[in-house]
């Protein structure tokens, strides 16, 4: 088996990571998926990730990251540990600083075990949501650290790093999966698949990007 052609995609079942999945399937001979179960606000995320993995016939590793809840700010600052949505804000209240650091590190350990050189993640600096460990400089730095830590030559790929949401839809279209991603993925903070609730920040960002992309193709395709 040619090691250089094996990849692990960090996969959440959302628009970005599903686009990365199809990007990876074009680039690499063998693709496996890893999803982190940190008791997301909506367990539907995990189910949708499983569904897509099954449909694409890909091996899907779901890793238990419930320990993140122990570190979540709300759990630390309150007597009762509550991980449900309380404010409808942008971030799940299970958000932990450094989360992407952990996810990419675990993805690399998995990659080592399944003999994959490539790690693909949908992090993005353009729609930067305030997570320093989603920035390009961090990913490059971690790549060096991971290589040193395991004496390996991993390559972390970030195909969406410099794309805005419209450009991410464009990439999906180029990969011939625009409709699939539109209908099958879950981005909505209220747990509604496809075009979602239409009101939460994630839905609005997704829809604005789609509108912008579709407008830009108007008159080109028709
Ligand atoms: Zn929504």
From TrEMBL:
CDD domains: QueC-like. Pathway: Purine metabolism; 7-cyano-7-deazaguanine biosynthesis. InterPro entries: QueC, Rossmann-like_a/b/a_fold. Zn(2+) binds at residues 188, 197, 200, 203. ATP binds at residues 11-21. Signal peptide: none annotated. Keywords: ATP-binding, Ligase, Metal-binding, Nucleotide-binding, Queuosine biosynthesis, Zinc. GO terms for molecular function: ligase activity. It catalyses: 7-carboxy-7-carbaguanine + NH4(+) + 2 ATP = 7-cyano-7-carbaguanine + 2 AMP + 2 diphosphate + 2 H(+). Its EC number is 6.3.4.20. The keyword rRNA-binding does not apply. Belongs to the QueC family. NCBIfam families: 7-cyano-7-deazaguanine synthase QueC. Homodimer. PANTHER family: 7-CYANO-7-DEAZAGUANINE SYNTHASE. This is 7-cyano-7-deazaguanine synthase.
């Amino acid at each position: 088996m040619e090691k250089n052609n094996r990849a692990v995609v960090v996969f959440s079942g959302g628009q970005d990571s599903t686009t990365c999945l199809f990007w990876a399937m074009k680039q690499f001979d063998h693709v496996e998926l890893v999803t982190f179960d940190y008791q997301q606000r909506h367990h539907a995320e995990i189910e949708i990730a499983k569904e897509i993995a099954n449909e694409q016939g890909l091996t899907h590793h779901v890793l238990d990251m419930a320990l993140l809840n122990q570190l979540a700010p709300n759990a630390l600052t309150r007597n009762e540990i509550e991980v449900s949505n309380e404010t409808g804000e942008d971030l799940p209240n299970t958000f932990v600083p450094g989360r992407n650091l952990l996810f990419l590190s675990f993805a690399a350990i998995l990659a080592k075990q399944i003999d994959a050189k490539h790690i693909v993640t949908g992090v993005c600096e353009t729609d930067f949501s305030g997570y320093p460990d989603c920035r390009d400089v961090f990913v490059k730095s971690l790549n060096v650290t991971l290589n040193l830590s395991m004496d390996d030559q991993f390559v972390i790929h970030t195909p969406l790093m410099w794309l805005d949401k419209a450009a991410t839809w464009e990439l999906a279209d180029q990969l011939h999966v625009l409709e699939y991603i539109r209908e099958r993925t879950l981005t909505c903070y209220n747990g509604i698949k496809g075009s979602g609730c239409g009101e939460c920040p994630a839905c609005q960002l997704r829809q604005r990007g789609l509108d912008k992309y579709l407008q830009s193709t108007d008159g080109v395709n028709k």
